[in-house]
Amino acid sequence: MKKIAVIGFGFMGVVHAKNIINSGILELCGIVDNRPGDIFAGLDKTGNQGALDLPLERLRQTPVFKTLEECVDSAQPDAVVICVPLFLHYELTKKALNFGLDVLLEKPFCPEIEQCRELIKLAEEKKRILMVAHCIRFAPQYEFLAQCIRDERYGKLRWLTTSRMGGEPTWGVWQNPEIKKTCGGSLLDLLIHDLDFVNYCFGIPANVKVNVHCDEYWEAALQYEHEAAISIKGGFLHRNSAFAAEYAATFERGSLRFCTLQPDVIHIGTDTGSQAVTVAGDGYCEELKYFTGCITTRTQSLRCQPESSLQAIELCRVIRSQVE
Q1: Is residue 60 domain-shared with residue 152, that is, in the same domain?
Q2: How far apart are CA 128 and CA 29, in angstroms?
């Protein structure tokens, strides 16, 4: 059984810790968080997913360490899941790799391109698994869309539009104005999900155009060598606004629609009728399962390579450069 420690116990750290415990094949050997006070207080009142149904008693039994060094010395993890503010990604990932640990790093990769490249090289030198946690790649509802694009069961894709928006976060580091400035706004925190997904499906776009940008709202058109039109839109609304992510895709012989407000259903329309297909599952769980397979078999993450996660950062930079 692989031993995994979680670094950073905000909303995403809690989600990963829960999934490690519930996996049945991993041991949550430690939590690294240097905040004062009870880090387990108020866990059910954070994030945008509602009630998390947390194994609170088991979480409270997990050793808590102030530093990664203390965790490594005492708990001896095989891998870590890093869920800290973006400006700490590079420092902690580098430290973990130098300790000989495999790393699942919460998205986005790192704020600077050279930092990403250095970590990719370091992981190769240390023969460690480095994977950035782009959970949408593993969400069954989005994987269904990716499969339809790949196998052309409804013909070639004609156009795809995605939307992802919700209230600006009110939890964790977003409550600290200074740290909030380093998080990259809705582009790096929210829309990078969809930007990474289209990179996963199509590769690097030939051209990117920002059609709408207002405060933390974006609409961008991506052009590829194929004829399909790709549009990505969304961003932060006023605080406490409901969150929703959705997509609509039209192929030569059918259309797909999905929205997280009806999370397990994909609506399919063709010339012969309509159907609602149940596609259930959780991207965070599937992502962790895949990472576990990689560190167990010592196989690099072909499904979510760090080089691809770097491309998502580069794409965000291209988009932002058009409004600066």
Answers
A1: no
A2: 19
Whether residue 127 sits in one domain with residue 250? no
List strand residue ranges (DSSP E) for the chain, in order.
Answer: 2-7, 26-32, 64-65, 79-82, 102-106, 130-133, 157-167, 207-214, 217-223, 229-237, 244-251, 254-259, 265-270, 273-278
What is the span of the domain harbouring residue 128?
2-134
125 and 165 inside one domain:
no
How far apart are alpha carbons 195 and 188 in whole angstroms? 10
Domain-embedded: residue 195: yes
Q: Confirm if 10 and 83 have CB atoms less than 8 A apart.
A: yes
Number of domains forming the structure of the chain: 2
Q: Name the pTM for this structure.
A: 0.94
pLDDT in tens, 238-282: 998 999 999 999 999 999 999 999 999 999 999 999 999 999 999
> Are residues 150 and 121 part of one domain?
no
